[in-house]
Specification:
Elements: E1 2-5, E2 8-13, E3 18-22, E4 37-42, E5 47-52, E6 55-60
Antiparallel strand pairs: 1-2, 2-3, 4-5, 5-6
C-alpha cells in the first residue's frame, strides 16, 4: 500500500508490517522533488506517479 502525506511517501508492507519512507533529500538528486505529496496514481506499466507541491515524480513499482 502506498500512502502520500505532507511528510513524504510511505510504502507500507501490510503482510510483514514494514514501512519504507521516500521523501525529499536535498543531497540526493534521485529523491522526490518535495515531501508534500498531493496525489498518487498508478498506471498499466507498473509505475507510480507522485504529484508533489514541486512537481511530478515517477517510480517503477
Amino acid at each position: 500500500m502506498w500512502v502520500g502525506t505532507d511528510r513524504g511517501l510511505f510504502k507500507v508492507d501490510i503482510k510483514n508490517l514494514k514501512i519504507q519512507v521516500l521523501d525529499y533529500d536535498k543531497a540526493n538528486q534521485n529523491s522526490l522533488t518535495n515531501s508534500y505529496i498531493k496525489c498518487l496514481e498508478d498506471d498499466d506499466k507498473n509505475n507510480l506517479w507522485i504529484g508533489t507541491t514541486s512537481g511530478i515524480n515517477i517510480i517503477d513499482k
